[in-house]
Amino acid sequence: MKRWSKISSIFGISIAILALYFVSSSGIYHLGSTVFAQSSSLTIISLSSDNKLIGGSQFVISPNPFTGAGNYTIVDNSADDTEKDKDGVITLSAIKNGNYTIIQTGIKSGYSVEQIQKIVQVNNSSAVATFTDLPSSNVTTSSASTRGITYTTKFECGSIYAGEGPLRPGHYDTDISLFNKQKSQTQVLWNAVLNNGPNSNAILLKMSSETSKSITCQDIRTALGNNNENFVEGFTIISVPLDAAFNGGETMVSSSNDINVLDVQAFYTANALDTLPHEVIVDKISFYIIQDGSGKIPSNMMQKTLDISMPSGLNQISDTEKKVKDALAKQYTLSDDDLAKIVIRIKDVSVGVGVLIDDHAISLSTVKPELGSQ
Q1: What global pTM score does this model have?
Q2: Tens-place pLDDT, residues 150-176
Q3: Fold of 25-275+360-373
């Protein structure tokens, strides 16, 4: 019984340490904090007012994310852009941690650059900055009334079975929750941008006062027209237009310091097992070592009640004595000849449902809003 308690205690401590590790390591994907951390990276997205990607943008980043000093200029699809085949999405990988100011200095013909600079923080994670550019013909000196609010977050959906992705094999899921903090109905547009693939059409959500909605992996797959179980990743772009006509004539934001009209949180889960979490049947075997002709088992283990716990299959016939001897051989480095000189007696076998077998990581990330033109 003492050995059973000790094993249970050790297992409990291991699970606690594992859970603490996953909760404390908030550096996995997302803009500010997240799970499944890779090297630090920065993604800059250029959008039109109807949430379509615009290629050809140029940005100045301060300080230089590779050296930590001076300024750095990046153009969409240039050498340092790891998303060269995706117009409108610039990703800089393996950059230094720090706070960065991003200014849009160029855009393709027909659009005007967004004048509002973005400030992002990179800390062993992936940060995202979104710029929304109006057609040149729509830009006026009083464009502040047409501004909107954008929330951009990463999604990871599906299963990785081998080495086909940057993440370890496992099952990944994303749930993005939206809460309307306003005292009136709010209308929200969202679309999905697939890494190295297409982006979806914008989807309209009508949210009543102080209600919540979620965007799940199933919603993202439906929007992208991808309903299989293959692993997909990318970004969701959630936009709240602030013009009075769209929002029922009510002014929702009184100043640039009060732009968080929604609470947006991204919840990530990952399970690294080949199968989903499940309970395991465990045999607890009590036994005596009657004789040890090998001389390799400590004398204080002789002629006393010992126990061991091991997984068991449902409706399977097994040799309990052999299980115990195999465990002794592993612990004390016993050969087959040594085992033949050892005599044991089984006292009792009890069957129970063991703890949940799981290698589960979770992460919760609060998405910060960005004010821009819509």
Answers
A1: 0.50
A2: 899 999 998 887 766 667 778 899 999
A3: Immunoglobulin-like (2.60.40)
